[in-house]
Amino acid sequence: MTVPATRDRSAQRALIEQFSREHPGAVLYDATASVVLDVASGKALPLDLGHVAAVEERTDRQTGRIYLAVAMDDGTELGLADAGVAFAPRTGSMGPLDGLPPVVCLRDLAQAEARLVHALTSHPDEPVDRTLVTLFLFCLAVVDGARAVGFDVGPEERRLERILGELEGRS
Fold first, then answer.
1. Which residues of 136-168 are buried (b: 16+ CB within 10 A; e: fewer)?
2. β-bridge partners, 105
3. Are 127 and 81 within one domain?
4. Which of 73, 86, 114, 169 could potentially form a cystine with 79 if both were Cys, beta carbons 3.0 to 4.6 Å apart?
5. H helical segments located in the chain
6. pTM, full prediction
7. Is residue 99 part of a domain?
8. CB contact at 8 A, 5 and 54
């Protein structure tokens, strides 16, 4: 059974706290600091309940697993899921990207970044191909989406700058 969207602050907080207790390997919620921790990345996301428009329990159509959809009063949406904090990737700085999923998380970034680093360090003589460029653009879309929901992505931007330099150096 899913819970319909609620605008009541205490009910929103209760849903977020309950989800966090039930998924401690994915997200943690610190009500005192108004912060959600994405466990896989170790990154904190400020979550001021005063700016939350609605919280709704939903079921993922593909996995059948429960997640929380959190709508902010500025129109931003994020999810609390088994994979951590989920959000829409952003492609405004690059244009459309084929195969980009509608929802991503920081685990997706870590996996894609690891593939890029592996390709660049373990295969130094191979030229940059479309696959690597697309993978880099995917990483950029995830970082832009993470920034849009409120994550501090400075370290990720610096890592992507280094990767971009490596990609450009091989072109």
1. bbbbbbbbbbbbbbbbebeebeebbeebeebbe
2. 86
3. no
4. 86
5. 9-22, 106-122, 130-149, 154-170
6. 0.92
7. no
8. yes
Q: Are residues 64 and 114 in the same domain?
A: no
* 5 pLDDT higher than 60: yes
Only one residue has tokens 């244009």, namely: 95
**Looking at the structure, do residues 120 and 65 belong to the same domain, yes or no?**
no
Read off the amino acid at residue 26: A
| Per-residue model confidence as pLDDT tens digits over 48-65 | 999 999 999 999 988 899
Q: What are phi and psi of 23, to 5 degrees?
A: -135, 55
**pLDDT digits over 119-166, tens only?**
999 988 888 999 999 999 999 999 999 999 999 999 999 999 999 999
159: which 2 tokens? 């890592």
Q: Are residues 71 and 113 in the same domain?
A: no
Query: Any bridge partners for residue 44, and if so which?
Result: 37
The boundaries of the domain holding residue 16 are 9-87
